[in-house]
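ok new one. same drill as before - C-alpha cells go in, u give me an amino acid for every spot. 222 of them this time. try not to just spam alanines like last time pls lmao
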C-alpha cells in the first residue's frame, strides 16, 4: 500500500504565522546601492575653500560662513549615511574634519593677529609717525555720539561733538593683521540722530556704515 510522501511543514514566522512573501519592489530596494552623498561633496568643497581663504589677508573673514555651512552639510550627510539613504561615509567624515579644521584655523589666525601682535607688529593708538600704515577713524553725527575705536584687543572711547563736522581718531601699524572696529552711538536716546562711520587705511576707505542711532564699522587689514 503506497503512502503520500511526507513534506516538512511550512516555515512559520513568529507567533505561528507564516512569513509574508517578499515583493519584487522590496527585493529591488534591498539590493539597491545607496546614492552619491551630494551634501558631503558640497561640504568638502566649502571646507577646502574656507581652509584656503582663512590665510588670505583682507578676506579671511569669509572663511567663517564657508566653514560653518560646510560643517552643517557634512553632519547632515553623515546622518543620511546612517539612515542608508546615501553612501560615501568616508567622504562625509572627511568633509566634517576639513570644515572643523577650517573653523579652528580661522579662529587661530584671528586670535594671533589680534591678541599676539605687539611692539612693532601691533596697532598703535594713538598713531606713531614712523609707522608704515596710517589708520583714520571717522564719525559724523549731527547730535553727538559716544565713539569706540581701535581693534578687538585695544580700544579707545571718546565723545563726538554735536555738529556736522566729522570726528576723527588716528592709529597706525607696521605689519600684522588686525580686525579694526569703530562704533558710534547717540548720547540722547530721544533724538533722531543720523550717524555715519568710516575707516580709512592709508587714505583708502575700507569700511563705512550709517544709521539713525548707531553705526558700526569693521575691517580686516594687514
Amino acid at each position: 500500500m503506497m503512502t503520500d510522501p511526507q513534506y516538512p511543514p511550512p516555515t512559520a514566522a513568529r507567533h505561528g504565522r507564516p512569513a509574508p512573501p517578499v515583493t519584487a519592489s522590496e527585493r529591488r530596494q534591498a539590493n539597491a546601492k545607496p546614492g552619491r552623498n551630494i551634501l558631503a561633496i558640497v561640504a568638502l568643497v566649502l571646507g577646502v575653500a574656507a581652509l584656503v581663504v582663512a590665510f588670505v589677508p583682507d578676506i579671511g573673514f569669509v572663511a567663517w560662513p564657508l566653514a560653518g555651512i560646510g560643517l552643517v552639510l557634512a553632519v547632515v550627510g553623515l546622518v543620511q549615511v546612517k539612515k542608508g539613504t546615501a553612501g560615501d561615509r568616508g567622504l562625509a567624515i572627511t568633509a566634517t574634519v576639513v570644515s572643523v579644521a577650517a573653523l579652528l584655523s580661522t579662529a587661530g589666525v584671528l586670535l594671533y593677529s589680534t591678541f599676539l601682535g605687539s611692539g612693532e607688529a601691533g596697532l598703535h593708538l594713538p598713531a606713531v609717525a614712523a609707522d608704515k600704515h596710517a589708520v583714520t577713524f571717522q564719525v559724523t553725527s549731527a547730535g553727538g555720539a559716544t565713539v569706540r575705536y581701535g581693534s578687538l584687543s585695544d580700544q579707545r572711547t571718546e565723545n563726538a561733538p554735536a555738529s556736522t563736522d566729522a570726528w576723527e581718531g588716528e592709529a597706525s601699524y607696521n605689519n600684522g593683521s588686525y580686525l579694526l572696529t569703530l562704533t558710534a552711538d547717540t548720547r540722547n536716546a530721544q533724538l533722531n540722530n543720523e550717524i555715519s562711520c568710516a575707516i580709512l587705511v592709508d587714505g583708502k576707505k575700507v569700511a563705512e556704515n550709517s544709521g539713525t542711532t548707531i553705526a558700526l564699522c569693521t575691517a580686516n587689514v594687514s
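The mean pLDDT is 80. and btw The CA atoms of residues 71 and 97 lie 8 Å apart.
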